[in-house]
Design brief:
- This protein is an alpha/beta fold and 758 residues long.
- It folds into 3 domains: 17-183 and 228-292 and 305-356, TIM Barrel; 363-453, no CATH class; 479-626 and 688-756, Aldolase class I (TIM Barrel, Alpha-Beta Barrel), CATH 3.20.20.
- It contains 25 helices and 30 strands.
- The strands form 5 sheets. The chain has an 8-stranded parallel β-barrel, surrounded by 6 helices.
- Helix 4 (110-119) links the parallel strand 4 and strand 5.
- Helix 17 (536-548) packs parallel to helix 18 (558-566).
Amino acid sequence: MKIRLYPLYLSPMRNIELLAPGGDVDSIKAAIAAGADAVYCGLDKFNARNRATNISFEDLNGILRLAHQNNCQVFLTLNIIIVESEIPSLVTVLNRLVNTSIDGIIVQDLGMLYLLANYFKTLKIHASTQLTTHNIGQLQFLNKLSVTQVNLSRELSIDEINALAPVAHENKMLVEVFVHGSNCICFSGICYLSSVHGGNSGNRGRCSQPCRDQYLTTPEDKNFPLNLKDNSAWSDLKELADAGVDSIKIEGRIKKFPYVYTVVNAWRKQLQSFQDGNKLINNNRALHKAFNRDFSNAFLKGAITKDQFIDNPRDHSAIYMAEMNGGITEETIEQAKGDIFGERAEIATKVGSIIHQLSTAKAPLTIRLSGECGTPLNVSVTTPDASFIVHSETNLTRVASQSLNYGMVLSRLKALNDTEYTIEQLDLHNLQPDVFIPFKELTAIKNRLLFILKGSKEFVEPIALPVLKKQTGESLKPTLSVIISSQDDLHLCNKTSATIYYQIPDCFKNVCADYIDLFIQNQSLIPWFPSVLIGDDYKAAVEFLNRVQPKLIVTNNTGIAYEAYQNGIAWIAGPYLNSVNSYSLACLKENFNCSGAFISDELSKTQLQRIKKPGNFELYYSIYHPIVLMTSRQCLFHQVTGCERDTIDNDCIQHCHKTASVTNLKKETFVIEKSGNNYHRIYNEINFLNTDIVTDLPEFFSGFSIDLTDIHTETKTGFDKSGVIQLFENLLNESPDAKKEIHSAIHPSTNDQYRNGI
């Protein structure tokens, strides 16, 4: 049954896709009924919303049938990083997906991007928000990996989106932007707070949302200092359209069907009003009926203020309704709660009735075989919408030892059940007994049936990945590298043979000329690029590469990786590119001439040792560093110690130097740090130290790094920086007491991630 309340409007204007969340079958139905142009949903594994109910593969084909009947696309989220042991299961899933009518696959993992681009070329690839896409080089990087649609970082302003959209379109990619739902306080894909504290990696879809937790009351009298209001671009639709946005996305795959219907229905009306008459609906009361933490469009407006925070992660709807009804009192709040409960119950009943009429059952097939010896085999297929006949290219024969029977035919045609159809009846009554046709002819018939049922798409045979072999015969003696970020530490270059990496700041435009001079004068320094480089900061980083022409760089930003590749500069993938499997390494080497990669610190020993590196490729690992839990474009001091400025501006970015801390109710403390020309960061209270890996995985890594940047945590060292370097040099030189000396000098520390993995 077709229920399409708001069919896709075809106007002379460029149509914008309304992309809705679907955490379970009912939510997907609700999104379709409310007028979504596309729905994104996840299977019960390999997706970044494990807390959602999600759908089974058996559900998927029925959902595809229902959605496509209602002019709605379906995008499947496979947007987590994939550890090596999961690759065979992933390939099994992809081999099934490639023969469905799925409209796109949403991806984070570089290894999965590699597999899709090389082996599953008929599947359209969408870049997840977990890839933190925010500059031109990243778009070019993704284009080289066959991405067709990219979800931009939700921290970007409309002006920044406007600068990226033309480049995406030139590279035949569609631009997707979140317009409603939860805001993360951290740039997506580089948040490790849930992973480090609780073992629930956000890059694995298990984020426990510690940013929403209650903390001990801060000096600013806040109990939820990391909690942001929800995102809403309700009033920004025209500007987004003018900026070239192709798809507006609603967050909420853990929300139930009444929420999904309410929000999608409201946005459908807003989009329809805009496309019909270039007018926007000003009243957003409908959005306040659904769960929300109040709304903000601060990121989009490029005016990041303290008003974006809210000191309460719970539903704000009743407070809003009370304010609209004359003011907040106990009486008006209680009245609003009652009204909202009644409205939501009414919506749930109404929508429940609508979605009850929508079936996600697969369409039944009736297949009848007929024919006699000396004639072709006729296969008649009847669906609820059509019927057709296919014929064998050879005639039926008599073979004394075997003949066509029900079990044999069903076995050969069972692949039809992996489509939007299911064989309900298989009738052989009109087939002459004791006749036979070669199995390859039955297979050819099956493929022709699939071709017709799939809308003239060829059946794709399952692929088996080539077996990757471990590199053998290498005798590796790992080297030491040291990360610094202050010119006061340049003297270390003369006191050690270790490679010195020098950190480039996030907001590079303010200091680009100074860094060009620094690296030209100190050519042994290796630039270390951060994860986030937006707008002019990215342009400044590109100018730096062109002027300095370094012999080697380390980058945590794929845009800079692309520029290095284009300019023939050797580069190493940094640890925040989340490289966790053999195919992510192959992706970097084969597509971008990468010379090596830091493996993610989230992996355990067992997960690490399964990785097989490409030939002529180096693996690196950070054995000592302050643990970055998150990087935020927001000011993290507003709710903690306070700040005299309400809005972040360039002066804040350039000159603010502050530290503070927050402690949750479990008595876990996190360090907040802001240095000049960098974004705000939260660090773990104690540093990561993993000396075990040196002996656990011999001849696996080409180098180990230690981070001696000036981040002040509770971890203390009994030596100056030269002394710390010497301790780790002793470790790599296999000094018998080195490990004991390191742990005696550096404490407290943790290597929980290495022990627990993801």
